[in-house]
Give the backbone structure.
Amino acid sequence: MSEEKKYPEPIVGALIVNNEGKILLAKGKKWGGKYTCFGGHVEMGESLKKAVVREAKEETSLDVEIIGEMGFNESIFEKDFHKKKHFVFIDFVCKYDGDEALVETNEEFEKEFKWFNPDDALKQDLANGTKHLLEKYIQSLKGEGYLDSWKRCQADFENYKKGQAKRQEDFRKFAKMDVIEQILPVVDNFEASLAHVPEEKKENGWVEGIVYIKKQLEDVLRNNDIEEISVKAGDDFDPGIHEAMAGKGEKVKKVLQKGYRLNGRIVRAARVEVE
């Protein structure tokens, strides 16, 4: 009769962490009284995640939630364990957000258990498997810190690029402001000159030429995103777009000089008389 083959036993491990980031450890009777995390065998037909939640409940009386996977760890004939065993640990980080006083370890542990800060936990008398798991967990915390820092740097850089792009766009939009401000008085002069042309002279070729030049200037303004501020007699006076040059009151009586916007920004307020 052939000898029965023996294989490594798969074990799920639960590193239980509370809302303050503290880790629950207890002294395991099977591990020479050294501090360990929790866990146990996977039952037939049971998933690893269901097994670790069940084992945590059986060994601590706590309902935990899995928040991370820590991968595999191996223990071959570990001297701390009370039997000669070959274990393959599949470890998980589990969160507990309830009352710490509800912890109640089962018969596999001594009644001595405690919540430790990660660095303090690593200073305790630990079973080797638990020590390796804690070191891996603490390293992952540092990695998350570096990752968060890197993500913040990336976000800052992206915001910088967006800010630069917006500044360049604003510069492109408003760099021509100075030239536009120099053109507006020319348009004003054409407006004033044409306002004094007698009706019977308006079809004169010379006058038509002046009108055409004025229209060309207005087209230049329009093509450069300059728009005239719409205002007429009877409008409510708005200090955001109007400049009162004469009179007192809340209504526009007369438009003295047209106002203009460039991409929504006031280039020159409309100058008005109020009443």
